Amino acid sequence: MNSTGDSNNPAGKAFFGRRKGKPLRARQARNLDELLPQLTLDPATPSPANLSQLFDSPVTRFRMEIGFGGGEHLIHRVQENPDTGFIGVEPFINSMAKLLGQIEGQGIGNIRLYDDDAAEILDWLPGASLDHIDLLYPDPWPKRKHWKRRFVSQKNLERFHRVLKPGALFCFASDIETYVNWTLLHCRRHGGFCWTARSADDWRTPYDNWPGTRYEAKAKREGRQTAYLTFRKI
């Protein structure tokens, strides 16, 4: 397990928790052994001058989702945007195995994957290469002593700012109020992102064509409201 250290994470601990849950089924294990190596990015190799070189299908835009969890949102966006090349990052093995099953079953060609720390891929990508980054329901690390492990930090925002194209979007969704406020404060402090909301409805309303996620459903069951924040690189 590789990790990322910065001023908010002085111990150099990874920004994610456990790597594996319940035992995998035989087909899931096979996909991890055979399909994942075909789709995974390798930050030890030189980064491509143009990200279109990473994909088998012709793509003109590029979008990354960090921590795709059950993959509901990522698969939905992949299907509705066939001209976009997607990079999905998820260190949790069971989630990766679930997504690989959908990729195999649907013959999806406009996606590449990474199963470790997203910071490694962000550092590997060429500058101004992404049109969009999604960070949806990230681990909130709710205890104050663990806040330094939240993925939103000045160091990672600087990574976002480097790889996003001018005017590109960073979308963040969470049902944890402290993390929403944390993200707003960090983006304002960074200075390279403009929060696009003009009224409360802008951050209370889900994104266009939002498919919903299991995390969102759990938040609703438990009486928590999600904030959908959109930031534009300036």
UniProtKB/TrEMBL annotation:
Record's catalysed reaction(s): guanosine(46) in tRNA + S-adenosyl-L-methionine = N(7)-methylguanosine(46) in tRNA + S-adenosyl-L-homocysteine
Gene3D superfamilies linked to this entry: Vaccinia Virus protein VP39 (3.40.50.150)
Keywords, in A-Z order: Methyltransferase, S-adenosyl-L-methionine, Transferase, tRNA processing
EC number(s) from the headed UniProt entry: 2.1.1.33
Region Disordered, annotated ranges: 1-21
UniProt cross-references to Pfam families, sorted A to Z: Methyltransf_4 (PF02390)
Metabolic or biological pathway, per its Swiss-Prot or TrEMBL entry: tRNA modification; N(7)-methylguanine-tRNA biosynthesis
Biased composition (Polar residues): 1-10
GO molecular-function terms, A-Z: tRNA (guanine(46)-N7)-methyltransferase activity
Organism superkingdom: Bacteria
Sites where the protein binds substrate: K143, D175, T213, R214, Y215, E216
Position of the signal peptide: none
Residue positions binding S-adenosyl-L-methionine: E65, E90, D117, D139
GO cellular component labels: tRNA methyltransferase complex
Similarity remark: Belongs to the class I-like SAM-binding methyltransferase superfamily. TrmB family.
Protein task: Catalyzes the formation of N(7)-methylguanine at position 46 (m7G46) in tRNA.
HAMAP family: tRNA_methyltr_TrmB (MF_01057)
Protein name: tRNA (guanine-N(7)-)-methyltransferase
Organism in which the protein naturally occurs: Martelella mediterranea
Lineage: Bacteria, Pseudomonadati, Pseudomonadota, Alphaproteobacteria, Hyphomicrobiales
Name of the gene: trmB
